[in-house]
Amino acid sequence: MNEKPIIGITTGDLNGIGMELIIKTFSDGRMLDLCTPVVFASNKLINYYRKIVADHPLNFSSTKDLTRLNPKQLNVFTCWEEEVPIQPGALTESGGKYGIRSLMVAAQCLKDGQLDAVVTAPIHKSNSQTPDFPYTGHTPFFKEKFGAKDAIMLLYSNELRVALATEHIPLAAVAAHISKELLISKLAILRETLIKDFGIDKPKIAVLGLNPHAGDEGQIGTEEQTVIRPLVEQMQQQGHVVHGPFSADAFFARHSYQHFDAVLAMYHDQGLIPFKTIAQGEGVNYTAGLSVVRTSPDHGTAFDIAGKNLADPSSFREAIFQAIDLLRQRAQYAENTANPIRRGRIEKEKEGETEKIAES
Q1: What is the residue extent of each domain of the chain?
Q2: Per-residue pLDDT, 68
């Protein structure tokens, strides 16, 4: 990894809050001490939103060559030259089309090794899904783009990590998707990312049930008895620290998540409603299971406040921080595991620290 990583940034929907977040974040010069940011957009788009958030003055450099970046300014990699109508707060075809162009160019540059990581601003499914972009969101796009067998949508903050077994599918279809094969794949990715990306040697994972009260022993659904619990028991027999299935409402109400390194929720709202309530706007969305690092804020396009200089950059700024931290953690893990002697020494040191704590 570069000492000062090059972070690619996508615009998101042109009419959402993405550009406001980007400008507010990098108007703070201290961010440029941490990374070299590259926004995939156009000069006209940047200038349009600079006027809206004029209380956050920003200088930028325009380029079409990623080998010639200005490390002391926000860099704008020109993705289009044509005039594009900008209508903050409006759901338009062009807003989605050019947001996807920004994403596609950034992802290709990441794949070509010209970027160290990518942070994506929010897109809207209504105007982003087309024959050229047939994805329900960023996660399946990056999964296919980078040839991953599977990937996980993982949201996390200082308080909590929540991964999703299923993502953007209708609630009526969730039960049919919950299978032993799916959960094995998701738990394997989650466990690996906790070890490699978060430095947790023996991760503790909680698995939520699908039905109310985790099925009440089969009285309110049988998925817990037929799929989830047998799988949890199988993983325990293999030496993994996995527990469940837990009733989702009691699990979060009793703060049981504080005893685990991560939680696997069965569907989107089961995990994201409590997560966003607890994270309070400072969470990050991370696509786990890829060979590359991609993060994003934990919110959407926010058309209702777009263009009004009201957008809070906290989650977006945290997504930048976390992209940098994930790169460093991966580099550290690779270094440790590449040298078995050093790895053994580190493990012995940890064992010694554990023994001291136990003796005290």
Answers
A1: 1-148+290-360, 157-281
A2: 93
Contact 262, 205 (CB under 8 A): yes
Q: How far is CA 308 from CA 85, 221, 235, 305, in A?
A: 17, 47, 50, 6
Strands 161-164 and 74-78: unpaired
> DSSP character for 173?
G
According to DSSP, residue 286 is labeled E
CB atoms within 10 A of CB 29: 11
User: pLDDT tens digit string along 259-279?
Assistant: 999 999 999 999 999 999 998
CA angle, residues 255, 192, 332, in degrees to nearest 5: 105
Is the pLDDT score of 307 beyond 90? yes
Q: How far apart are CA 181 and CA 198, in angstroms?
A: 25
Q: Where are the alpha helices (DSSP H) in 92-208?
A: 93-111, 125-128, 138-145, 174-177, 180-196
Whether the link from the prior residue into 122 is cis, omega within 30° of 0, is no
Strand partners, 74: 60
**Full-model pTM:** 0.89
- Cα 343 off chain centre by: 28
**Among positive and negative, which fits the CA dihedral 49, 52, 53, 59?**
positive
Q: Which of 71-75, 247-251, 336-340 has the least mean pLDDT?
A: 336-340
Judge: domain 1-148+290-360, CATH 3.40.50.2300. Answer: no
Architecture in CATH of 157-281: 3-Layer(aba) Sandwich (3.40)
